[in-house]
Amino acid sequence: MEKATYKSSGVDLDIYAESMARLPKLVSRTFSPRVMRLDGGFAGLFQLNGLTAPGGEKRQYDDPVLVSCTDGVGTKIKIACMTSRHDTVGIDLVAMSVNDAICCGAEPLFFLDYVASPKDDPDLLEALVSGIVKGCEEVGCALIGGETAILPAMYNQGEYDLAGFCVGVAERSKIIDGKSICDDDVLIGVASSGCHSNGYSLARRVVFEIAGLNPDDFVPELGKTVADELLTPTRLYVKPVLALLKQFGANEGIRGIAHITGGGLVENLSRILPEGLTAQIEPRSWTIPPVFAWLQRLGAIDDDEMERVFNMGLGLVLVVKPEVAHDVRAELTRMQLDNWVVGAIAKK
Q: Which of 15, 38, 47, 129 has its CA at 20 to 30 Å from residue 312's CA atom?
């Protein structure tokens, strides 16, 4: 009788050990002095107050409130698997959570990841984590923990899934909850980098099934290949937003922030508006990236469907006091972020 082993069941602990050996040096690049070293152990430790944060500032919260966000990358992963390009979807994973956290004025502190695949692959895991590390480095967020699950019966060979978890902190008195939003406040849209990580079930159907394109096909109207366009990472807005909040004030100059993801402008903006107020969007007031016209043409997608599924070129919308709108836009431009006045707040 053959002896059953974990390896014969699909999990090779020796390869798993090799994967784990590659990660500590990579992950440690994201550590700030606020990460408390704990050799071994089963958790990551992070200190809020008293230690020097990235940039040389001291953090001292009087009444800190923890902020938590979680998200995944969705079927954008399918395109990474089709092309064997796995080093960018980790950036998307970080962005989808940290961009949510800043909407209430929080500083992202640390990040946790979850990677599930049918077999252990050290090269794949290293590529995925390298993207997560790059995203965390860009926003000053420490990657202090994660889980790698080998699940042979759950996924087809060559597939995997990702989930991410961000914990941030905000001073209670500076939490942005939308309550200070007023009639006549200005809506400033900040450019996305493309599709970000939403609408990929529709995008994949249009591009690969309806249009019959391949990932390496060059698209003249985009000036790049299908894969280069659809794997463009989600833009990270953390540092620009935190700088704006420091300069113009939470609930003062900056009165509301909406991360434009699935549901588009209508559903995401409505989440932050007080009762009795609405957002009046001025159509065609911003530059829509070519990728959206391309997708709409290939799939004969209705305008309403496009606007509900995709961000249409705006990854973030700031609700700002009219008197500071010009200066906020100037700062965004200085930070090399395209931006537009896309509308205003009005009474219903």
A: 129
CA neighbours within 13 Å on the CB side: how many for 1? Answer: 3
Query: In whole angstroms, what is the distance from residue 307 CA to residue 171 CA?
Result: 34
User: What are the tokens at 174?
Assistant: 């500076």
Average pLDDT, the chain: 94
Rounded to whole angstroms, how far apart are CA atoms 96 and 237?
10
What's the rounded Cα separation, in Å, for the pair 152 and 115? 13
C-alpha dihedral sign at 211, 83, 197, 120: positive
Q: How many CB atoms lie within 10 A of CB 94?
A: 32
Distance CA 261, CA 285 (A): 19
Q: What is the pLDDT of residues 17-69, one digit of tens each?
A: 898 899 989 999 999 888 988 777 789 999 888 666 555 677 888 999 999 99
Q: Is the dihedral of CA 263, 335, 68, 112 positive or negative?
A: positive
Task: Classify residue 142 by burial, with Cβ atoms within 10 Å: 0-12, 13-18, 19+.
Answer: buried
For a pLDDT cut of 90, what percent of the chain falls above it?
84
Q: How many residues does the chain have?
A: 348
| Contact assessment for residue 139 and residue 236, using Cβ atoms and an 8 Å cutoff | yes
- The sign of the torsion formed by the CA atoms of 214, 215, 219, 221 equals positive
Structure tokens that stand for 286 in this block? 């911003």
Give, for 143, the enclosing helix (H) or strand (E): strand 142-150
SS3 315: strand
Treating both helix axes as pointing N-terminal to C-terminal, what angle do 325-334 and 238-248 enclose, rounded to 10 degrees? 140
